[in-house]
Specification:
- The protein has one domain: Nucleoside Triphosphate Pyrophosphohydrolase (Alpha-Beta Complex).
- It is 31% helix and 27% strand.
- By secondary structure, it is of the alpha+beta class.
């Protein structure tokens, strides 16, 4: 894994698809699953110059945040209201090519924590299918994932996107969530957080 560091300020916003592509190319792969997803995302964006937008119906880019407590011992999970699964905060790029800014924005909105800081570069990639709904066809989420560190005095305040938010250790997460992608992210994120 490449060395990661906490941003002293918010990451820049307004980036392009080329910013996202450069970020993906800079990741040093240590996990074969994440490496495969990174290659899949690079191939996808080479064919879809609108991959940062939801209007790209085949799929679009998202940014996720593994929110880690100040002691670097627990992660914050949300019981997603629509999917009924324990997940990390995250959401659509909506045109934003600086995906660290997307991950930080989503973490703030979905946890209500003030004082979050994002670490760069990302630590994981994932591609997953989103089932069809009345307003959109089945499509892919091309997810770039970052470690986000909470301050020691973090106060959690969820929003309408979750039924519950919970701080968990890695062993608690393994009992709570069966999603192998989330398990991979938590392992990598907690390991990376120890270096920050």
């Amino acid at each position: 894994m490449s060395a990661i560091s906490l941003s002293p300020t918010d990451p820049p916003s307004g980036g392009t698809l080329q910013n996202a592509e450069a970020l993906l190319r800079a990741i040093v792969d240590t996990d074969e699953a994440s490496a495969g997803y990174r290659r899949e995302i690079l191939a996808f964006i080479a064919k879809h110059d609108d991959a940062l937008y939801r209007t790209c119906l085949a799929g679009h880019m998202t940014g996720s945040a593994l929110v880690v407590d100040a002691a670097r011992e627990r992660v914050l999970l949300m019981l997603h209201a629509k999917l009924g699964m324990w997940l990390q905060p995250g959401g659509h790029a909506d045109g934003e090519g600086h995906l660290a800014a997307v991950a930080l924005r989503e973490a703030r909105e979905e946890t209500g924590i003030v004082g979050l800081r994002v670490a760069e570069p990302p630590i994981d990639c994932d591609v997953h299918s989103i089932p069809a709904r009345p307003d959109e066809p089945e499509h892919l989420h091309l997810d770039i994932r970052f470690v986000v560190i909470a301050p020691a005095d973090a106060v959690v305040q969820g929003n309408h996107e979750s039924h519950e938010l919970r701080w968990v250790t890695l062993s608690e997460l393994l009992d709570l969530a069966s999603d192998c992608s989330l398990r991979r992210l938590a392992r990598a994120g907690l390991e990376a957080a120890q270096t920050l």
